[in-house]
Write a structure and sequence with these properties.
The complex is a heterodimer.
Chain A (H helix, E strand, L loop, with lengths): L1 H11 L4 H9 L4 H33 L3 H5 L12 H9 L2 H32 L5 H13 L2 H14 L6 H25 L4 H8 L4 H12 L1 H17 L2 H6 L8 H12 L3 H35 L1
Chain B lengths: L1 H4 L2 H47 L17 H7 L2 H33 L5 H9 L6 H11 L6 H8 L13 H29 L3 H9 L4 H29 L3 H6 L11 H10 L4 H31 L1
Classes of the chains: A mainly alpha, B mainly alpha.
Chain lengths: 303, 311
């Protein structure tokens, strides 16, 4: 435990520094502390290696030639085959798929932010009859799982002529993101001070004006948490993309990858390069927006 | 309430404007909800109801004619070995995800929370698999676990464990646990993040007080950490379980339910029944049975959590 307490103290510089250091210095012998620490970092490193290995192998494999990849020679590419990436990009039509994914994800996130911040604001701040009913419906809808609905959603979109159609897909993405995002936004708005809204109301601004000009600009942290978490979800969505798109030129990248695999039967190293390209945007996004992701996932799950 | 205490003559003239004001207030409130209600009504509630109706109809996915067939679809599903095999398999995934996924997530969160250096690094790495798509995970592991040239078998040979080499995704008895392991690899980072956030919210004073009482490492975990984490544990458990039970893309890309039906899962069975066999009615019956079970599970879990937090 001593390692743990000092760890806390170092990282967060909180008031428990004396307790931590005192314990580390006296009770358990130093050697034991050291051994604990080695064991701990050993465990963490093994877990990190297991988490990273498939990705490192993918990177390495994507730069090898097929014979090298299938032979037992080495783990690292002897002579990096950068042109694998060119082949993957062209053969796999990744430009089209990535563009579609960016478009769908972007539209879905904007839609979710708009709809859920409106609803979240109403639940947190406005006073009206039936608020409880709506909250209950939101919670109930969250419980309905995708496997129970995707068939009927497909049937519905057929009858609306929205299959093989970006609009239909984006509307589904938006709808599936609304319940959780609304709850996140509600708790975000509830934690904000009311002063500015009240001042704006005294100036004679109506609720929509207040929402658009005063509330939304201040809601950036909440919006960011919702945006990253829903952005990841939309980017990685697969089931509805599989069901709704036959037309390759409209597929998002997850669906495109499986289309590439089954139609072209590309060689393994090319497919690895294509897979690598497909995760570059999401990994960069993850590394940049990590803080928001952690917050967003926390907020989404706990609410 | 206050209006009732006012004298009658004052109340009367103000009645009409006040009623209008309440109406206006309600109207504005619902106006903010219109987009959410429209989308949820059209794309969630309608299909949910339609799925139930469709389970009593016959539909080939093309024709506009969907005749009523009564309970025929449920009859068909009741004796469909593939569907019930998929239910058994997914139960296995649920148990493995629940026990191992949550166990690893908790242990790693405790470990990361207790180190001084490298917290951010380990946190970043541990959640990295979680931002990949099911397709990417499925593709990667289908190569890694391939029988001949797969890197796992080659590594085993390299370290002298060639006795363990096998057709990881082709052997009926091996494939199911292997796919479950892939799920755990993919998903444990999610529980880890939530546990870690939960651990950082435990008030430090509690540990200090426990130390003053002479608590050792285990009793600090047992009497401080564990009870403090209870709300997080219960939500992580439910979400992990639901994710494991709804597993689809990973399995489709990795094994497509094979060998035989040994890794078939309900969502994939529903998908195949509809989009491969063109029997949407029985697929809808499956989704009602399976979806209903999931809903029941969520409601049960929420009820238990509610009751526990009230006590």
């Amino acid at each position: 435990m001593s390692g743990r307490m000092t760890g806390r103290a170092d990282e967060m510089s909180i008031a428990s520094v004396p307790a931590g250091t005192a314990e580390g210095g006296t009770r358990p012998p130093r050697r034991k502390v050291r051994r604990d620490k080695v064991g701990l970092y050993g465990l963490l490193s093994v877990a990190a290696l297991i988490a990273l290995f498939p990705l490192l192998w993918m990177l390495s494999g994507s730069l090898q030639s097929l014979t090298e990849l299938l032979s037992n020679e080495s783990f690292l590419p002897a002579d990096p085959q950068w042109h694998n990436y060119v082949t993957a990009w062209v053969q796999g039509e990744l430009g089209i798929y990535l563009r579609n994914s960016v478009l769908y994800t972007g539209s879905a996130v904007i839609g979710i932010l708009l709809v859920s911040s409106l609803a979240g604001y109403a639940l947190a701040r406005l006073d009206f009859a039936g608020k409880g009913v709506f909250t209950f419906v939101i919670l109930a809808v969250m419980i309905i799982p995708a496997p129970a609905m995707f068939l009927a959603q497909y049937k519905l979109l057929i009858s609306l002529s929205l299959t093989n159609n970006p609009v239909g897909y984006v509307l589904i993405l938006i709808t599936s993101g609304i319940p959780m995002s609304t709850l996140i936004m509600r708790s975000f708005f509830a934690s904000q001070p009311r002063a500015l809204e009240e001042a704006a109301a005294l100036d004679g601004a109506g609720p929509l004006r207040i929402f658009w000009n005063v509330i939304l600009p201040l809601a950036r942290p909440g919006l960011a948490a919702v945006a990253v978490i829903q952005g990841l979800g939309a980017w990685n969505e697969y089931l509805m993309a599989l069901v709704l798109f036959d037309d390759n030129s409209l597929m998002p990248v997850q669906r495109g990858l499986t289309a590439f695999t089954s139609a072209e039967t590309p060689q393994q190293q090319i497919l690895l390069a294509a897979t690598t390209i497909s995760i570059v945007p999401v990994v960069i996004f993850y590394l940049l927006a990590q803080r928001h992701i952690v917050k967003g996932i926390g907020a989404g799950a706990i609410k | 309430m206050t209006t009732q205490q006012l004298a009658v003559p004052v109340r009367r003239p103000s009645r009409a404007p006040r009623g209008r004001r309440v109406l206006r207030r309600n109207l504005i409130g619902w106006l903010f909800l219109v987009p959410a209600i429209a989308l949820i009504g059209i794309f969630t509630i309608t299909p949910f109801a339609q799925a139930i109706l469709l389970s009593f109809q016959s539909w080939d996915g093309v024709s506009s004619d969907t005749p009523w067939v009564g309970l025929a679809n449920y009859d068909f599903v009741a004796s469909d070995p593939i569907f019930w095999a998929s239910m058994r398999n997914v139960l296995f995934f649920g148990v493995v995800g629940f026990v191992f996924g949550n166990g690893i997530a908790l242990v790693m969160a405790l470990a990361v929370n207790s180190i001084a250096r490298g917290k951010t690094f380990f946190r970043t790495v541990f959640y990295l698999p979680g931002v990949l798509s099911v397709v990417v995970v499925g593709l990667l592991f289908s190569f890694i676990l391939a029988p001949g040239s797969g890197i796992l078998n080659r590594l085993l040979g390299l370290v002298g464990l060639s006795a363990l080499q096998q057709n990881w995704l082709g052997e009926p008895t091996v494939a199911l646990p292997v796919v479950a392991a892939v799920f755990v690899w993919f998903h444990w980072g999610f529980g880890f993040l939530l546990f870690l956030a939960g651990l950082q919210d435990v008030p430090k004073e509690l540990y200090e007080a426990a130390e003053l009482d002479g608590a050792n490492r285990w009793s600090k975990f047992r009497y401080v950490t564990w009870p403090q984490l209870a709300p997080v544990t219960s939500i992580v458990s439910l979400l992990t379980l639901l994710a494991a039970l709804q597993i689809f893309g990973t399995v489709q890309v990795l094994t497509n339910g094979g060998p035989g039906q040994h890794t078939m899962v309900p969502t994939l069975a529903i998908y195949n029944e509809a989009f491969v066999n063109w029997r949407y009615g029985s697929a809808a019956a499956m989704s009602v049975i399976f979806g209903g079970a999931l809903v029941l599970l969520s409601v049960l879990q929420l009820a238990i959590t509610r009751r526990r937090s009230r006590v």
